[in-house]
Amino acid sequence: MPRIIKHPELRREELLDHAQALFLTRGYDKASLNDVIASAGVSKGAFYHYFASKEALLEALAERFARQALAGVQNILNAPGLDPLARLNGLLAQSRQAKIETASEAWALFETLFRPDNLVLFHRINLAASASFSPLLVKIIREGVEDGTFKTFDPEGVADILMQFGMATHDVIAKAITAGGDADMEVAIEALERRVRLYEIALDRILGLPDGSIRIGEPGYVRAVMTARRKPKADEAR
Amino acid sequence: MPRIIKHPELRREELLDHAQALFLTRGYDKASLNDVIASAGVSKGAFYHYFASKEALLEALAERFARQALAGVQNILNAPGLDPLARLNGLLAQSRQAKIETASEAWALFETLFRPDNLVLFHRINLAASASFSPLLVKIIREGVEDGTFKTFDPEGVADILMQFGMATHDVIAKAITAGGDADMEVAIEALERRVRLYEIALDRILGLPDGSIRIGEPGYVRAVMTARRKPKADEAR
DNA sequence: CTATTATACCGACCGACGGTCTATTATTCA
DNA sequence: TGAATAATAGACCGTCGGTCGGTATAATAG
Questions:
Q1: pLDDT > 70: percent of chain B
Q2: Which domain holds residue B216?
Q3: What is the mean pLDDT of chain A?
Q4: Considering the domain boundaries, does residue B59 fall inside one?
Q5: With contact defined as beta carbons under 8 Å apart, do A84 and A143 qualify?
Q6: Which of A13, A198, B44, B80 lies at a CB distance of 3.0 to 4.6 Å from B154, suitable for a disulfide?
Q7: CB-to-strand C under 7 Å, chain B 21-50
Q8: Can you give the pLDDT at residue B202?
Q9: Is residue B238 part of a domain?
Q10: Does residue A236 fall inside a structural domain?
Q11: Strand D nucleotides, any atom under 7 Å to a protein CB
Q12: CA-to-CA distance for A196 and A217, rounded, in angstroms?
């Protein structure tokens, strides 16, 4: 095999890219290291030069994922003069829109990330994302409590519930997608929209807000993701 | 090796027992099939006579776990003349007491079941338990909605939240246990009690009940589990 | 009480896996 | 230019889950 030497950081990112693709499509366990290095066109020695183990590769992947997600919401956090509720809703909207704006991509992600195969990968990403997001949420909630917008005795707890609901929403969507009986798609969509409404009202009441204050997603949010697969687009090639 | 023939169901249960012990202590991935069969004193052929795969063993384990847990709450479901709130609280109390009554055992379970190693095992048990418990919760909530005790437009959603909170409680306890800085144990216990209170109030408000209606655990619940490890008892054998 | 079939069990063996190791080629810098 | 280091290759290793041909025991029929 011809020896190709690349810029180290480039090679590392390349490995992460191929690993991510394979882990998502086949699952962490089922995608072997040999698959990864074959896909990346790299020898084992090269791989182990960059990562200490397959486990470390997973960790790096989760970290990158969380880092990218965090970068997407930084501007909202730094936006001055927003009241806590607006900030919280903005954060929710941002993370929602990041998925909606490329709806079919979002669908693909849901379909793959929440498969049983991807339990390990999902858990790692979830962990990394939680570690990144929770402090931000806590900070916002604390500010809200201080200025009287929110009412709670356990900001960390509320932040956790927020994350739980976010994950649960995705989980429920993913389950409906994989179940995928096209016949009762409408029923599934309605059930999911209802679930989102429930989460919103629950959060309103937990935080002592009037019903309708928190907005996880406007009506149609679920439908947008769920119907994204109907138009697989003409571009099925790489 | 001498050939020992046992009653099939006994052998099967035995395999499940040894597998459970090993999966809990070492984790599903790290406990190899050879470990399991060695522990059970059985050949590979014997094992594959009872289970189609290691995966199937895990499935059977989760199923047994869920079945046992369900059996523990049947009497409350069948108790006549209880109003929905009492029934719901009874169910929560039952599942709590099942863990408290052997507090050190509960602690051991927490310590093992929620370790990262046990992600796979935990997920399977969780799945099986959810499948068993959710319908019961939904039924109770529906009854409550019909007779006006509860107010919600999404009983399934509320049931899901109940399960989420239950799991989250365990998860938080387990994290505090494994973190295990004895110094700030008191702080951790207080934080956890606060979390349980938050979940209770959240559920009250989601269901349109006065604060203090839902009781996940009486004050001291968390402390009882958390301090159980202080008395490892004299019996360390077996 | 046999003969025969079905069940429970054994353990050598297999391919694939994650990971290690030595060798070799490129890059860097004095 | 040449020595040191970084980057890459690929043969090799122990262990894993799983298979297979076979054997001992139990169940059943004649």
A1: 86
A2: 65-230
A3: 84
A4: no
A5: yes
A6: A198
A7: 42-46, 48-50
A8: 98
A9: no
A10: no
A11: 6-12, 15-22, 24-26
A12: 7
